[in-house]
Design goal:
Elements (H helix, E strand, L loop, with lengths): L4 E7 L1 H4 L7 H11 L3 E8 L3 H11 L5 E5 L10 H8 L4 E3 L1 H11 L7 H7 L4 E3 L4 E4 L9 E4 L3 E4 L3 H10 L1 H7 L9 E8 L3 H18 L4 E7 L4 E9 L3 H14 L3 E3 L1 H10 L1
Parallel strand pairs: 1-2, 1-3, 3-8
Antiparallel strand pairs: 4-5, 6-7, 7-8, 9-11, 9-12, 10-11
Helix pairs in contact: 2-7, 3-4
Length: 273
């Protein structure tokens, strides 16, 4: 099967102005790697209707799987649902199933009144139409994953919710995109070398050129660890090319004074930078 191509859209002024640090795109990148999905683009945009619509109109023609994070709360700047709906020429309306779930789990009428109650139910105002489906992934959560055109999946921005809901959607996504446990997944190896990036650049260029002839999915990268006295070479590809990837590892070790490095150790070194 052809590999699923994905994009991630992080929505929120608070990310762009430095108020919060985005961790959702990093989590999603790791999720895609683990599940054999090819994440090709991550976009961070503000709470701006025109910007959200332009971004969605661009991405929906390129990718099969688009995840958005953020902008689905009850305040004036939470405009994700409405903006994405407009990009698909869809209306938004109160979703009665969602409203009922909110009432059963949060009992808003017991604590909110007037404008506050009205604003609370803004979160139940979803895109509507025949191409919209809402997935409720847990009995204790009222918020759904709103899906449009079996392509765009709208998630909350709160990291704990985003991560939980992405993981819970895995069986559904595998069914929607006809993914199976036998589909090829990505694998990655690391080689540690005391040589500088300038000293390894030509060899890595040759390895990349030769590898591309084997598969477009094989990617060779290098990552400097300043102050640690070494660099790391990353060798990434598909499981089906695992034997070839291992030969690249051996070549990098032999030609670049290297030693193979585990993923855990590479992460540890990266965290220490």
């Amino acid at each position: 099967m052809s590999r699923i191509r994905a994009a991630c859209v992080i929505i929120g002024d608070e990310v762009l102005n430095g108020k919060i640090t985005d961790t959702n795109s990093s989590f999603f990148a790791k999720y895609c790697f683990k599940n054999g999905i090819k994440l090709e683009q991550i976009v961070t945009i503000g709470d701006n209707e025109e910007q959200i619509m332009d971004t969605m109109c661009d991405l929906k023609n390129k990718y099969q799987f688009i995840v958005t994070s953020g902008g689905i709360g009850s305040t004036h700047d939470d405009i994700t649902y409405e903006s994405i709906a407009k990009s698909f020429n869809l209306p938004c309306s109160i979703n009665e199933e969602l409203k009922k779930r909110m009432q059963e789990r949060s009992h808003p009428e017991n604590r909110l009144h007037g404008q506050a109650l009205h604003d609370y139910y803004k979160m139940a105002t979803l895109p509507s139409g025949p191409t919209v489906k809402n997935y409720y992934i847990a009995d204790d959560l009222w918020v759904p994953v709103c899906c449009i055109d079996t392509k765009v999946f709208i998630f909350p921005g709160i990291p704990q919710l985003f991560e939980r809901m992405i993981n819970s959607m895995t069986p559904i996504l595998k069914n929607l995109f006809h993914m199976s446990d036998n589909d090829c997944s990505f694998v990655r190896y690391y080689v540690k070398t005391p040589l500088s990036e300038s000293q390894i650049a030509h060899t890595l260029k040759l390895i990349q050129e030769e590898s591309t002839a084997v598969s477009q999915e094989i990617k060779i990268g290098s990552y400097p660890h300043f102050g640690m006295g070494f660099n790391t070479i990353s060798i990434l590809g598909e499981q089906k090319d695992d034997e070839y990837l291992k030969r690249i590892v051996t070549r990098a070790v032999n030609e670049l004074q290297g030693e193979e490095l585990s993923g855990d150790m590479e992460e540890k070194y990266s965290d220490e930078r």
